[in-house]
Specification:
With 244 residues, the chain is an alpha/beta fold. It has helices at 33-48, 68-78, 108-125, 141-144, 161-167, 170-188, 209-216, 220-227, and strands spanning 11-17, 27-28, 31-32, 54-58, 82-89, 98-103, 132-138, 150-157, 200-202, 240-242. It has two domains: 11-188, Aminopeptidase (3-Layer(aba) Sandwich); 200-242, LysM domain (Membrane-bound Lytic Murein Transglycosylase D, Chain A, Roll), CATH 3.10.350. Helix 1 (33-48) crosses helix 6 (170-188).
């Protein structure tokens, strides 16, 4: 793949954790889709921070509900190079597997990216015995109304007790997130940042510099210096802070 940088010199990846807030999405076996999609999306963002020339924006970083129109509009206005919407499937208790969707009239790039990302996700989750439901198309609003290549992933069935048990495993969340990242890295030919001893933290709602410093065993003074924070130690949601 050829890495075609945006005008800002970065590949801009927009991640959309499905549902949120008043909309729980699918519900089953003690799980809410909105919680799982946010977990996976946040981990994808964290893992992508290890790569050069990539910027990530999320449609939500907490339990909020942007409308479908707002999600697409935010990605369009931002000028994203790729839109990734993360979901969990639901049907019957016996429904199984992973699948992903592009728009029925998708561009050649969307089709190309779907093949790459689908393959990489299946590589990471096949050890869980996940059924490959294949590459799908659909007239889904977030795929239809975004201006860039877009993909929607459906990561197992919350309605199936066996797959719900898999979704409850931290190891699976890590693996499926890594699969998404591996696909994006391959599709956009992203390169790992040069190895160093630095470590970064993505700010989420409720974070303070004091809490972050305590979590990573450092000091607020060091975090302020590394990240050129103001005297009030102001941070914003989705900001990547150096913490070591």
């Amino acid at each position: 793949m050829v890495n075609v940088l945006s005008k800002q010199g970065l590949i801009k990846i927009f991640i959309d954790p499905g549902h949120g807030g008043k909309d729980p999405g699918a519900v089953g076996n003690g799980l809410l889709e909105k919680d799982l999609t946010l977990k996976i999306a946040k981990r994808v963002k964290e893992l992508l921070a290890a790569y050069e020339d990539v910027e990530v924006k999320m449609s939500r970083t907490g339990d909020t509900y942007p409308t479908l129109s707002e999600r697409a509009k935010t990605a369009n206005v931002w000028g994203a190079d790729f839109f990734l919407s993360i979901h969990i499937n639901s049907a019957s208790k016996t429904s199984t597997g992973y699948e992903d969707y592009i728009y029925t009239k998708a561009s050649a790039k969307s089709k190309e990216y779907q093949k790459i990302i689908h393959a990489e996700i299946m590589k990471k989750i096949k050890e869980y015995g996940v059924r490959d439901r294949g590459l799908q198309t659909g007239n889904l609003q977030v795929l239809r109304t975004t201006n860039m290549p877009a993909l929607l992933t459906e990561n197992l069935y919350i309605s199936n007790p066996d797959e719900a048990a898999i979704l409850k495993k931290a190891a699976f969340i890590e693996d499926v997130a890594q699969g998404h990242v591996n696909g994006i890295v391959t599709a956009f030919d992203l390169k790992k940042k040069k190895a160093d001893d630095k470590e970064y933290h993505t700010v989420v709602k409720g974070d303070t510099v004091t809490k972050i410093a305590k979590k990573y065993g450092t000091t607020i003074v060091k975090i302020k210096s590394w990240n050129k924070l103001d005297d009030k130690y102001t941070v914003r949601i989705e900001q990547n802070l150096r913490v070591k």
